Amino acid sequence: MLRKTCRGLFALLLLVLEWTRPGLPSPLRPICDLRVLNHFIQEARDAEVAMKSCREGCSLTEAVSVPQTTVNFEDWEKKNAMAQAQEVQTGLWLLQQALGLLRTSMTDAELNGHIDTATRNLHSITAVLRSLNFPEYTPPASTAGLEGTWSASSAAELLQVHLNFLRGKVRLLLLDAQACQQDVS
User: Fold this and answer.
1) What is the pLDDT of residues 119-165, one digit of tens each?
2) N- to C-terminal Cα distance for the chain?
3) How many whole angstroms separate alpha carbon 172 and alpha carbon 167?
4) CA-CA distance, 98 to 58, in Å (whole number)?
5) What pTM, to 2 d.p., does this model score?
6) Which residues of the chain form beta strands (DSSP E)?
């Protein structure tokens, strides 16, 4: 037991020494590791595929507001990081609301599991944005009049928007986040 503990502490010491070695870039913060986002994207794809095979009990009861997923890169680059974060946070909130409505209308147990996973992942992304020092998001009282939204009328359409939003605006925001930039000394 003591031998395993010593090996573990020695390995940890080597990692710390490797990271603090002068002249090397500092490691990315764990929250900046895009492999986590890639995992969320894969789970969104899985939900979309599962939805396509659903025949019964897998529809929206009403149309929902969702974020637009298209990115005009020229406009995106002109926005400051706070404006980009606000747009992503609004989109995450809209998707959480829409997935919540979808969850209440679903009767397919397998798809409910996918919807629950997608909702948890959106909450995790929101927590990552908070840890990157973006301001806390305050949702609007109503989705009416929100810029950059459109309406999804089917569950398949909602899940496609979810996937595209993660692959687009969320990825762009995390790639450019100041806290995620490596320092080269």
Assistant:
1) 999 999 999 898 888 888 888 877 776 788 899 988 999 999 999 99
2) 40
3) 8
4) 14
5) 0.79
6) 64-67, 149-152
